C-alpha cells in the first residue's frame, strides 16, 4: 500500500519506518528542509534505539522516501497520516492544533481519489470532526474518510511498541476506511495484536485516558512510597504485592522522582482542560498533575536533607538528566526542576548523561557537564541518581566511594540495594524504602 506521513518527527518517523518494514511504500513529508536533507543522507534527528538501521534498510529497499513536498507525498497515497506536533498551548494548557489544521488544509488540496486521512497525533476529542470539516471546506469534491488512530509508543522502545502493540485502536464508522486500515495493519494482527474499532471520538479519548491512567498509576505508587518512608515499609515490595493481582498489573508501579516527558505532562493537562470545557471535570487527574509537580521539588528537598539541611556551596553530582533512559529527550524531565531547586539553594551542579547533554544545555544553565559518572562523583558532596540508565547500574561503587568528598548517594530510581550501599560505607537514601 502507499502510505504518507505528514511530520517526520518522533511518531511520524518511527511509524513510517515500521510501515515500510512491513512492505508498504511510505513517504515521510516534513516542511523542515534541513531535517529532510539529513534524513536523505541517512542521519536520524532523534535518538531511538534501532531506528537508524530500520530507516537505512528501508531506504535502501526503496520502500521509504523523504520529501518536503506535501503534494508529491500525498498524491497517490491510500492513507495519509497526520503526525505533526500538538504542544501545550501557552497559557491555557489546551493542545495547540494549528499544525494539525494546517496539515488538513494541505492534504485536502493534494489528495487524488479516495484517501483515508488518519490522525496519529494526540488530539483532543472532536478534532477528527474539525479535520473532516476543513478538508470538506477546502475540497468539496474530494473522496475521503477521517480516522483516528492514536499511537501508544514509548520513547526508547518505540519500534518494539509499534511492531508488537498490546492493541491497535482505529476510530471510524466507515466500512471503506475500516478496510484500508485493516489492510495497513494486517501484518500486526496476524501477530495476534487486537485491532479495536471504535467511533472516532472514542478513539481520541482512549489515547488521553490511557496516558492519564498511567500517570495516575505512577503518582499513586509515588505517594505510597512517601508513606512507606514514614511507616517503615518497602515500596518495591508493596508494588510487587499489589501488582501480582492481575486486576492491578505490575507495570508502571516504579516509584521515582515523578513522571516527565513529552506526553504525560502535556496529555494530562489537555484532558483536564477538555473535561472542564465539557463540564465533566476529572478531578483525580487534576490532583495527579499537582502532586507530580510538587514531587519534583520535594526530591530536591530530599537531597538537601541527605546533606544535613544545606547544600550551599556544596557540589552535587547528578547522574541522568533525560526524563527516562534510552532517549535524549529533556522535555519536562524531573532533572530540570530538581537541579534548578538545588541551584536556588546554593548547590554547585556537576552532571552526566549518556545521551541528553546537548538537549540539557538548552534548558539548564550553570551546570558543569562531564563525560562519565566517575567525573560526576569526583570530589562531590552528594551523588544523585535521577535517571536509571543501565550504565549506572553496575558502577564501581568502591571507586566512587573513595572519590567523593562525602559518601552521600540519593538514589531517586531505587537502582541500588540499601544494605549493599550501607556495607560499602555510603550514607544512602532512596525512594520509599524503610525508615
Ligand atoms: C508514554 C506512554 O507510555 C506511551 O504509551 C505513549 O504512547 C506515549 O507516552 C505518548 O503519548 O506518546 P513515554 O512518555 O515515552 O510514553 O514514556 P514512559 O515510558 O511512559 O515514561 C513516562 C514517564 O513516567 C517517565 O518520566 C518515567 O520515568 C516515568 N515512570 C514510568 C515512572 O516514574 N514509573 C514507572 O513505573 C513508569
Give the strand line-up of the largest sheet.
3-2-1-4-5-6
Terminal CA distance reads 59 Å
Q: Give the strand tally.
A: 14
Profile the largest sheet. Answer: 6 strands, parallel
The averaged pLDDT comes out at: 95
**What Rg, in angstroms, do the CA atoms define?**
23 Å
Structure description:
There is one protein chain. The protein is an alpha/beta fold and 435 residues long. It has a 6-stranded parallel β-sheet, with helices on both faces. Strands 11-10-9-12-13-14 form a 6-stranded parallel β-sheet. A two-stranded parallel sheet has the order 7-8. It starts with a strand and ends in a 6-residue tail after the last strand. It contains 17 helices and 14 strands. The longest helix is centred in the middle third of the chain and has 32 residues, at 200-231. It folds into 2 domains: 2-198, NAD(P)-binding Rossmann-like Domain (Rossmann fold), CATH 3.40.50; 199-435, 3-Layer(aba) Sandwich (Rossmann fold). Residues 122, 151-155, 211, 214, 218, 252-254, 256, 259-261, 263-264, 267, 323-324 line the site of uridine-5'-diphosphate-glucuronic acid.
Write the layout of secondary structure elements.
Blueprint: E1 2-6, H1 10-21, E2 25-29, H2 33-40, H3 51-60, E3 64-67, H4 70-74, E4 79-82, H5 98-110, E5 115-119, H6 127-138, E6 144-148, H7 158-163, E7 168-171, H8 175-189, E8 195-198, H9 200-231, H10 235-243, H11 264-277, H12 283-306, E9 315-319, H13 334-344, E10 348-352, H14 357-363, E11 367-369, H15 373-377, E12 382-385, H16 397-403, E13 408-411, H17 418-423, E14 427-429
Parallel strand pairs: 1-2, 1-4, 2-3, 4-5, 5-6, 7-8, 9-10, 9-12, 10-11, 12-13, 13-14
Helix pairs in contact: 1-3, 5-6, 9-11, 9-12, 11-12, 12-13
Bound molecules: uridine-5'-diphosphate-glucuronic acid.
The site of uridine-5'-diphosphate-glucuronic acid has 21 residues, from α9 and α11.
Amino acid at each position: 500500500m502507499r502510505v504518507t506521513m505528514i511530520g517526520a518527527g518522533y511518531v511520524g518517523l518511527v511509524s513510517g519506518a515500521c510501515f515500510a518494514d512491513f512492505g508498504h511504500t511510505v513517504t515521510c513529508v516534513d516542511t523542515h528542509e534541513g531535517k529532510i536533507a539529513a534524513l536523505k543522507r541517512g542521519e536520524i534527528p532523534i535518538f531511538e534505539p534501532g531506528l537508524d538501521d530500520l530507516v537505512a534498510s528501508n531506504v535502501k529497499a526503496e520502500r521509504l522516501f523523504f520529501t518536503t513536498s506535501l503534494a508529491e507525498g500525498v498524491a497517490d497515497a491510500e492513507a495519509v497520516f497526520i503526525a505533526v506536533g500538538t504542544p501545550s498551548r501557552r497559557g491555557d494548557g489546551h493542545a495547540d492544533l494549528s499544525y494539525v489544521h494546517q496539515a488538513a488544509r494541505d492534504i485536502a488540496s493534494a489528495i487524488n481519489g479516495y484517501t483515508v486521512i488518519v490522525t496519529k497525533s494526540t488530539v483532543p476529542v472532536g478534532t477528527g470532526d474539525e479535520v473532516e470539516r476543513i478538508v470538506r471546506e477546502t475540497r468539496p469534491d474530494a473522496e475521503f474518510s477521517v480516522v483516528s488512530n492514536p499511537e501508544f509508543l514509548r520513547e526508547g522502545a518505540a519500534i518494539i511498541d509499534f511492531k508488537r502493540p498490546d492493541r491497535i485502536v482505529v476510530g471510524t464508522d466507515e466500512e471503506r476506511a475500516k478496510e484500508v486500515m485493516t489492510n495497513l495493519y494486517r501484518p500486526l494482527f496476524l501477530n495476534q495484536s487486537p485491532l479495536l474499532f471504535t467511533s472516532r471520538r472514542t478513539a481520541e479519548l482512549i489515547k488521553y485516558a490511557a496516558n492519564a491512567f498511567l500517570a495516575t498509576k505512577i503518582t499513586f505508587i509515588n505517594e505510597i512510597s512517601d508513606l512507606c518512608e514514614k511507616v517503615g515499609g518497602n515500596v518495591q515490595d508493596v508494588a510487587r504485592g499489589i501488582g501480582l493481582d492481575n486486576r492491578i498489573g505490575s507495570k508502571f508501579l516504579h516509584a521515582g522522582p515523578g513522571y516527565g516527558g513529552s506526553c504525560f505532562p502535556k496529555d494530562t493537562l489537555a484532558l483536564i482542560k477538555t473535561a472542564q470545557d465539557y463540564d465533566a471535570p476529572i478531578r483525580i487527574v487534576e490532583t495527579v498533575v499537582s502532586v507530580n509537580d510538587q514531587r519534583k521539588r520535594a526530591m530536591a528537598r530530599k537531597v538537601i536533607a541527605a546533606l544535613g539541611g544545606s547544600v550551599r556551596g556544596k557540589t552535587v553530582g547528578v547522574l541522568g538528566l533525560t526524563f527516562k533512559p534510552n532517549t535524549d529527550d529533556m522535555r519536562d524531565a524531573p532533572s530540570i526542576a530538581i537541579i534548578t531547586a538545588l541551584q536556588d539553594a546554593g548547590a554547585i551542579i556537576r552532571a552526566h548523561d549518556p545521551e541528553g547533554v546537548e538537549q540539557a544545555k538548552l534548558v539548564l544553565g550553570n551546570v558543569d557537564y562531564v563525560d562519565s559518572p566517575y567525573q560526576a562523583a569526583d570530589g562531590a558532596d552528594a551523588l544523585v541518581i535521577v535517571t536509571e540508565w543501565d550504565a549506572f547500574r553496575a558502577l564501581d561503587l568502591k571507586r566512587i566511594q573513595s572519590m567523593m568528598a562525602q559518601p552521600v548517594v540519593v538514589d531517586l530510581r531505587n537502582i541500588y540495594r540499601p544494605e549493599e550501599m550501607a556495607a560499602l560505607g555510603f550514607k544512602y537514601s532512596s525512594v520509599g524504602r524503610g525508615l
